[in-house]
Design a protein that fits this description.
This protein is an alpha/beta fold. The protein folds into two domains: about 5-165, Rossmann fold (3-Layer(aba) Sandwich); about 170-290, N-(1-d-carboxylethyl)-l-norvaline Dehydrogenase, domain 2 (Orthogonal Bundle), CATH 1.10.1040.10. It has helices at about 15-20, 35-45, 55, 70-75, 100-115, 125-130, 145-155, 170-195, 200-210, 215-225, 235-255, 260-270, 285-290, and strands spanning about 5, 30, 50, 60-65, 90-95, 115-120, 125, 135-140, 155-165. The protein has a six-stranded parallel beta sheet with strand order 3-2-1-4-5-6. Strands 7-8-9 form a three-stranded mixed beta sheet. Helix 8 packs across helix 10. It starts with a strand and ends in a 5-residue tail after the last helix.
Length: about 300
């Protein structure tokens, strides 16, 4: 049984760590900035809580992490009492934060200097995917480190792939978010158009879902979008954070993301409507606000 630690028990990390403890049968040392959350996790899953990331990582062969952004990630790794200060040679740090490729490369280099490995392994699938253990994980880093971590990651993921070297996982997550942003805006416009045209929306959606328009957002979000229900899922605030990373990377690698930039501004409108914590499918809310109440 491997000695493992988990840092960050938010809406994603809490259930992900739970799957490692439950399905994998492993005892984890956990750290969370809010100590009460760590105590609750230990009460539910066993193991023990540590007072700092370094204390959690001490003696662990694998350390998993899922925090908010680049700054949070630096704080719990190379910052004062960060996990990197407690890790030994030959160990592996697996980061599930959606962060920049730049910080992934930076921390990979810092880990290598200390004699251990770093994997950037952002996830897709949202809170429901984390709770149900069916996330998609895209990883960057050394092949040997990935092979060691993959069986444990598989306790909360149905698809786990190494994309390439350090930073490649984060770049793949950017590809994912770029695609999702465009699909959700297109679906919002399609639903709004169908409603304004007076069509039988359920029949239309059932029909086009069998053709080239088929997609996960269409099959899973059209009904809630048409009903104006957004109190679930991946928050707009999080999506704007992710899209800012995509747009910054696009400026570095000279990619053109005009649609992504436009959708990011649409999400800014949703935030101004008070929808920062709404699901990302709430793009339709700004159209409905112009048309009047959504027509189910």
């Amino acid at each position: 049984m491997a000695q493992m630690a988990w840092i960050g028990l938010g809406v994603m990390g809490y259930p992900m760590a739970g799957h490692v403890a439950g399905k994998g049968g492993h005892s984890l040392v956990v750290y969370n900035r809010n100590g009460a959350k760590a105590a609750a996790w230990v009460a539910e899953h066993g193991g023990r809580a540590a007072s700092t990331p370094a204390a959690a990582a001490a003696g662990a062969e694998l350390v998993f992490c899922c925090v908010g952004n680049d700054d949070d990630l630096r704080a719990v790794t190379t910052g004062e009492n960060g996990a990197f200060h407690g890790m030994g040679a030959g160990t592996v740090f697996v980061d599930h934060t959606t962060a920049s490729a730049e910080v992934a490369r930076e921390l990979s280099a810092a880990a290598a200097e200390r004699g251990f490995s770093f994997l950037d392994a952002p996830v897709s699938g949202g809170q429901a995917g984390a709770q149900n253990g069916v996330l998609t994980v895209m990883a960057g880093g050394e092949e040997a480190a990935f092979a060691l971590a993959k069986p444990f990651i598989s306790t909360y993921a149905r698809a786990v792939n190494r994309i390439g070297p350090a930073g490649a996982g984060q770049l793949a997550k950017m590809v994912n978010q770029i695609a999702i942003a465009g699909m959700l805006q297109a679906l919002a416009e399609a639903i709004d158009f169908a409603q304004n045209a007076g069509l039988d929306l359920p029949v239309v959606m059932e029909t086009i879902a069998k053709g080239a328009a088929q997609s996960w957002p269409l099959e899973n979000r059209w009904k809630t979008m048409s009903e104006g229900r957004f109190d679930f899922g991946f928050m707009v605030d999080w999506m704007r954070k992710d899209l800012s990373i995509c747009l910054a990377e696009a400026r570095r690698n000279r990619s053109s993301l005009p649609v992504t930039a436009l959708v990011d501004q649409f999400y800014a409108e949703v935030q101004r409507m008070g929808g920062g914590r709404w699901d990302t499918s709430s793009l339709i809310a700004r159209l409905s606000a112009r048309d009047g109440p959504a027509k189910a």
